[in-house]
Specification:
The protein has eight helices and ten strands. Strand 3, helix 3 and strand 4 form a beta-alpha-beta unit. The protein is globular and about 55 Å long. Strands 1-2-3-4-5-6-7-8 form an eight-stranded parallel β-barrel, surrounded by six helices. By secondary structure, the chain is of the alpha/beta class.
């Protein structure tokens, strides 16, 4: 536990390639990171698994928004977990909350039963819980391997005080993985202030321009705040800088 590891958060084949070539130890494969990430397609998973020899954990999130799921949404999540388990995923990344802001133990336990022997990461639904320290103990009891968190702050650097407490409380029982706003220039500081050696990041440096020459700027296919002609992808050199920084951290 807490061995230096850099996980790439990726939502396209191009980003997977950039992260792997940049030294990713593991991928969290998603779709639609512009809205926080949703479940990726099995086709993308199969292509990435075929072409890149790194463990792949798959985000299981049926929609954008909160983490309070209906019965049909939980059924969809269970089926997605089963599908990716059968396709050979290393793990799944999940999170379900109650209306009161606690981990939904019953729903989580059911999802974990479907995961079988796969690794399970509790994603940043954790950062939306009312009591992160109680949620950590629940994650341990459920058998999660990792908690992905910014320390319930706007980014991991801002959340170092809580991250430090979480790592101390975890006491080697579960990995605390720092995520959100992880960059080459702040990884060492996050480590020095928390002791965390497990990091999660996109390695993005800004949008790339679309190859489209004809552009219809008056029409939006999604959120009006997002341009149809900007592509957000992992930058190989940025990710390599993150991975090198993480891999240079002292081992226990």
């Amino acid at each position: 536990m807490n061995i230096p590891l850099m996980e790439g958060c990726v939502d396209s084949y191009a980003s997977c390639a950039a992260a792997c070539q940049g030294g990713a130890d593991r991928l969290e494969l998603c779709a639609n990171l512009a809205i926080g990430g949703t479940t990726p397609s099995p086709s993308l998973f199969q292509m990435v698994k075929r072409d890149f020899p790194v463990p792949i954990n798959v985000l299981i999130r049926p929609r954008f928004g909160d983490f309070l799921y209906s019965g049909p949404e939980l059924e969809e999540m269970r089926e997605d977990i089963r599908r990716f388990r059968d396709l050979g995923a290393n793990g799944v990344v999940i999170g379900v909350l109650t209306p009161e802001g606690d981990l939904d133990r019953d729903a989580m336990a059911c999802l974990m039963d479907h995961a079988g022997q796969m690794d399970v990461t509790l994603h940043r639904a954790f950062d939306m819980t009312r009591d992160p320290f109680a949620a950590l103990e629940e994650a341990v009891r459920l058998g999660c391997r990792t908690v992905l968190t910014s320390g319930q702050a706007r980014n991991a650097l801002a959340g170092t005080a809580v991250l430090r407490q979480l790592l101390l409380q975890a006491a080697g029982r579960i990995d605390i993985m720092a995520g959100c706003g992880v960059k080459p220039e702040n990884i060492r500081r996050i480590y020095e202030e928390t002791g965390i050696r497990v990091f999660h990041g996109t390695g993005r440096t800004g949008p790339a321009s679309s190859g489209m020459r004809y552009r219809k700027d008056s029409v939006s296919m999604g959120l009006p705040s997002l341009s149809e002609y900007e592509l957000w992808q992992t930058n190989e050199e940025e990710f390599r800088a993150c991975a090198r920084m993480v891999h240079s951290l002292p081992r226990l």
